[in-house]
């Protein structure tokens, strides 16, 4: 290949892209190999580590808000960031080690956040959530931050302002310490990518508490607020947890009508709830009445091909139990799959960070049959 062709290929599909120091190629980015000698594999492993740390940081942030920290995770984040600093570490094996540690730290952080949520708001239990509206002024809360939602619910208690959850905030309804608030009226919309249409449709104040935002449209940005790490152009940021401005905005907007939703959602299946049925689940598996467990979850995307997940859940045999979590559930969580002798066939485990519940359930299922989590067992899973 000629030199120009190699350069063009590197631009169109670079092996790496590093621009972390002043020596970067052409003042733009090293795309084949670093001017410093860094190999593409190392650059990619550094990128991978940074993505992992970003995810861990989000969950750790929410745990810290509730007063829960872990010095081991903090120390890992410092070391991980430092390892990606310019020309500190050129060893791919060490970055692989850090990637494995990042997975371990992610599990620790999800366990920490789960503990923080349960000790603050109680253990989630299965809860039906309405998807319509009730007559009154309203605030829609989106994102993942249960602490921010709790602060808002405390501040609207006893008023005529209702609070609705959106997308990843749906599992909040499963926690006794949150659903006890009468102003928590229901859930509106579906996964994150419906936000521009949804926020424009309802004349309500909107509070954004964490990730998964799109730059807001003009038509609703004056009634939108951001809190915590969220900053959006043209949107008022609330420092701390005093949401009186959000509540005042909701009161100044027209009331929503009484309108029932087309379906009711169910959320709140914690590890404890599921394990309380362990003996029954084991017997149903041994009797051949439950033959498969699938986990269908994760982040959704506005792609036609993602319809596959709804079709999949619709077509799985009736002896199948589907576990789900994160906003990917909105592809199919309106479906009524019924139950197998009282065990629901569609089980919402919670937010993306509740992937830890899925891991615990998988380990418990494996333990029921005396096998490892990756071993064959009397039933198929995942
Ligand atoms: Fe290029 Fe190395 Fe600088 Fe990265 S650290 S921009 S690979 S010279």
What tags apply to this protein structure?
382 residues, alpha/beta, 6-stranded parallel sheet, 13 helices, globular, binds iron/sulfur cluster
Summarize the structure in short.
The protein has 382 residues and is of the alpha/beta class. The protein has 13 helices and 14 strands. It is 40% helix and 14% strand.
If you had to describe this structure to a student in words, what would you say it looks like?
α8 links the parallel β5 (205-208) and β6. The protein has 382 residues and is of the alpha/beta class. The strands form four sheets. The chain has a six-stranded parallel beta sheet, covered by helices on one side. A four-stranded parallel beta sheet has the order 13-10-9-14, with no helix packed on it. It has a two-stranded antiparallel sheet with strand order 1-8. α2 packs parallel to α4 (92-121). The longest helix is centred in the N-terminal third of the chain and has 30 residues, at 92-121. It has helices at residues 3-12, 40-65, 71-83, 92-121, 146-156, 176-179, 195-201, 218-221, 244-252, 271-275, 278-286, 307-315, 355-368; strands at 127-130, 137-142, 161-165, 184-187, 205-208, 224-227, 236-238, 264-267, 292-295, 320-324, 339-340, 343-344, 346-348, 380-381. The mean pLDDT is 94. Helix content is 40%, strand content 14%. The chain binds iron/sulfur cluster.
